């Protein structure tokens, strides 16, 4: 019997359990009843499935993994729901926040601000920051992002303004090198760039940090809050399962990687790795930009989409949860790009030990290839937390995960104007969704949901 993994409304079936299950599933949805095949069950695909259901459209959603959520992944470990991927949400992110409200999902402030020790690694030493220092650091961040105001004069509209100074072509590294500030503040701003880019700064478009700043009301303080201040108590899985639960006309099939998508005269034929096919008048491709080329499309996708997928976006960092000895306290420490670890924040702490969340924008600098390299992580953490003793590490290697091939979307210099409009442009009967091509909070859960709303609307209009 098929293994039901979520209740309420939609039918979610974990595939590949036994051959018999496949037969049962094929009978369950006749292709002639299907309006759209949705490829990918992250927030974009699942939101689109729910929105299509609300419009009376039937969908089959095929997801490669054994779970929904894609680059969000709540994993229970050591008694805690740990987010290996997307975590933070904020009221300034209108699409995700309306979903949080709709399903009454409980949120919490994280990290806890009371008693939070903030620090920056500068010139090889840890410099603690007073509240006044943090204020000055935020002012420096505002100053760094000031040129972006001309690039994003109306950040919640889709248009990017004209770009006479060529800012869209410049990297974060390029801008940082010409940014003047006292060393500690410069290192703090650089650490923030590492956190936003989550990839090498020379490969990360400066436009990406300007955009976050602009979307947060051109305020460094609000940008920081949007990026890393509020999380879901039970994890992102509660939200995605809530959305999936209302995709009442969607047949959600897990363990169903797609290998080929062919447009025919009358529709779209989607072929799975296991040889099954699903056909429908339309398909919604809700895949990460970096994996588009892993699926064979006939006819080929536009050259821009193929090139973007081959070039990849710059997001390629490493996030992990690190267990260390003793009570480390409530800390938030940033470090510039020459460090292997660029951000560390306490997840839990007591006298028995502490869990830290660790971010590295350049995992090549980490002297660890696997999550079991305790010694490598211990070495990498010393500049931020001298003397710290690492016990264990857990996390997910998104960059080598064939269904992600990267972390969150951060465009390379130039990709904003060259890639974005085409990435979500319909090709025949194929529609496109995903955080990587969202209009506003691109690269965020919010952007994925935004794209789910838009693509469902567009498909419904097309089919009407
Ligand atoms: C480490 C990390 C931290 C992050 N932190 C935050 C954060 O704090 N806040 C925030 O808002 N965002 C964060 N993000 C970004 C956010 O998680 C993503 O932008 C968003 O979840 C992407 O949603 P999506 O639906 O567009 O794509 P995805 O979630 O990638 O969904 C695409 C789906 O397609 C599936 N797929 C791939 N190939 C195939 C195939 N061949 N056949 C069928 N299915 C396939 C995948 O398995 C996946 O489920 C983070 C991401 C990472 C990796």
TrEMBL record:
The keyword Oxidoreductase applies. FAD binds at residues 63-64, 258. Its cofactor is FAD. InterPro entries: Amino_oxidase (IPR002937), FAD/NAD-bd_sf (IPR036188), Flavin_amine_oxidase (IPR001613), Flavin_monoamine_oxidase (IPR050281). Residues 43-459 form the Amine oxidase domain. Substrate binds at residue 359. One of its GO terms (molecular function) is oxidoreductase activity. Keywords: Oxidoreductase. It comes from the Bacteria. This is Flavin monoamine oxidase family protein. It comes from Streptomyces sp. R33.
């Amino acid at each position: 019997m098929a293994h039901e993994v979520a209740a309420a409304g939609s039918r979610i079936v974990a595939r590949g359990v036994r051959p018999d299950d496949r037969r049962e599933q094929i009978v369950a949805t006749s292709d002639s009843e299907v309006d759209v095949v949705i490829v990918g069950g992250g927030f974009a695909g699942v939101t689109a499935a729910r929105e299509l259901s609300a419009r009376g459209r039937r969908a089959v959603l095929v997801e490669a993994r054994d779970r929904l959520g894609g680059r969000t992944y709540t994993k229970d470990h050591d008694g805690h729901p740990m987010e290996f991927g997307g975590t933070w949400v904020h009221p300034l992110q209108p699409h995700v926040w309306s979903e949080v409200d709709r399903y009454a999902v409980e949120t919490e402030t994280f990290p806890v601000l009371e008693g939070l020790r903030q620090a920056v690694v500068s010139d090889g030493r840890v410099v603690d920051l007073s509240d006044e220092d943090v204020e000055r650091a935020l002012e420096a961040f505002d100053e760094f992002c000031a040129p972006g105001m001309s690039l994003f004069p109306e950040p919640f509209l889709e248009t990017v303004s004209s770009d006479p100074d060529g800012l869209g072509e410049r990297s974060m590294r390029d801008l940082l090198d010409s940014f003047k500030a006292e060393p500690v503040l410069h290192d703090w701003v650089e650490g923030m760039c590492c956190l936003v880019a989550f990839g090498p700064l020379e490969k990360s478009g400066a436009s990406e940090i300007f955009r976050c700043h602009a979307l947060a009301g051109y305020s460094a303080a609000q940008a920081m809050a949007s990026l890393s201040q509020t999380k879901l108590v039970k994890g992102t899985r509660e939200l995605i399962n809530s959305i999936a639960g209302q995709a009442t006309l969607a047949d959600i099939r897990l363990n169903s990687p797609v290998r080929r998508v062919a447009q025919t005269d009358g529709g779209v034929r989607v072929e799975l790795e296991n040889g099954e096919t699903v056909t429908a008048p339309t398909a919604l491709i809700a895949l990460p930009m970096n994996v588009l080329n892993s699926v064979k499309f006939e006819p080929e996708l536009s050259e821009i989409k193929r090139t973007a997928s081959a070039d990849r976006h710059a997001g390629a960092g490493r996030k992990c949860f690190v267990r260390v000895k003793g009570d480390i306290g409530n800390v938030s420490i940033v470090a510039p790009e020459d460090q292997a670890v660029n951000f560390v924040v306490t997840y839990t702490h007591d006298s028995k030990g502490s869990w830290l969340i660790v971010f590295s924008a350049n995992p090549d600098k980490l002297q660890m290839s696997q999550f079991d390299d305790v010694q490598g992580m211990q070495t990498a953490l010393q500049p931020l937390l001298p003397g710290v003793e690492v016990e264990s590490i857990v996390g997910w290697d998104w960059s080598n995960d064939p269904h992600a091939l990267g972390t969150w979307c951060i465009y390379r210099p130039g990709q904003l104007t060259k890639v974005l409009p085409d990435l979500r442009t319909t090709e025949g009967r194929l529609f496109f969704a995903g955080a990587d091509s969202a209009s506003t909070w691109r690269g965020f859960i919010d952007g994925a949901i935004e794209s789910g709303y838009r693509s469902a609307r567009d498909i419904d209009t097309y089919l009407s």
